[in-house]
Amino acid sequence: MAIKSYNPTTPSKRGMTVSDFAEITADAPQKSLTKGKKSTGGRNNLGRVTTRFRGGGNKRRLREIDFKREKDGIPAKVESIEYDPNRTANIALLSYADGEKRYILAPVGLAVGTTVMNGEKAEPKNGNCMLLKNIPLGLSIHNIEMQPGRGAKLVRSAGQVAILRAREGKYAQVKLPSGEVRLINVECRATIGQVGNLDHSKIKLGKAGKKRYAGRRPHVRGVAMNPVDHPMGGGEGRASGGHPQSPWGQLAKGKKTRNRRKASSKFIIERRKK
Questions:
Q1: Mean pLDDT (whole number) for 11-21
Q2: Are 154 and 146 in contact (CB under 8 A)?
Q3: Measured on CA atoms in the order 89, 91, 83, 215, is the torsion positive or negative?
Q4: pLDDT the model gives residue 240
């Protein structure tokens, strides 16, 4: 997908880029696979702000994505490639041979009319979903489960890709986009290929308003606040504010926050690159 730029007819258009949406083939989502999405405004069930600088934004319909891909042995044809406002990747509408329709993440190269399949009978080709024990070593994969049958949790953003490096016993070694190498049960599923919409990272918003459309309010720096509002606030002139930390004193740079006794640490072979 290419990037479209604008002439600087207004200050916001100067340097602004958007996707040309050349891959998108449908104007509206499949109605039966969408539902309403309630905006939280960064608040929990008690109405208290738990995530700052959230609120507003455009209304969206939530597309129900099939992250489990458990419909085995039934071929499905790609009906359309669609835009999803809730994620960076595009989505593909599959129409199965038995008439059921489902959305999946659209990998690179998946085109309308392509046939994909899940399960033991599937071949290791782009868009097919297979168990890790059946995928040839060295292949690019995405949409990876962490626990069998729980649905994909890893490598779901635009342009992301993981590599299946090795298998030993009931675990496979997978190199994640962060550089971390992790052991994952061979009974977990993954989809062949790389997540599409590769040019998403090249998009420049151009103006603050486009952040507001996405529900992101202005982020106020701690050093710009008063001492009563933030540990880094106050000071004569432009004081740096001391150690970077959150409003509640949690150090923001350098402090390791992962629990040393976390049970899943034994599955990490190599830590991510710094």
A1: 92
A2: yes
A3: negative
A4: 85
One DSSP character per residue, the chain reads: --EEE---SSTTTTT-EEE--TT---SS--GGGEEE----TTB-TTS-BSSSSB------EEE-B--S---TT--EEEEEEE--TTSSS-EEEEEETTS-EEEEE-BTT--TT-EE-BSTT--S-TT-EEEGGGSPTT-EEESEESSTTS-EEES-STT--EEEEEEETTEEEEE-TTS-EEEEETTSEEEES-BS-GGGGG----SHHHHHHTTB-----GGGS-TTT-TT---SSS---SS-B-TTS-B-SS---S-TT-GGGGGEEEPPP-
List of domains in the chain: 3-201 (2.40.50.140)
Tell me, what's the pLDDT at 1?
Answer: 66
| Model confidence band, residue 2 (pLDDT cutoffs 50, 70, 90) | confident
Please tell me the predicted confidence (pLDDT) of residue 274.
65
The closest of 246, 265, 264 to 255, measured between CA atoms, is 246
Residues 245-274: what's their mean pLDDT? 90
pLDDT tens digit sequence for 73-82: 999 999 999 9
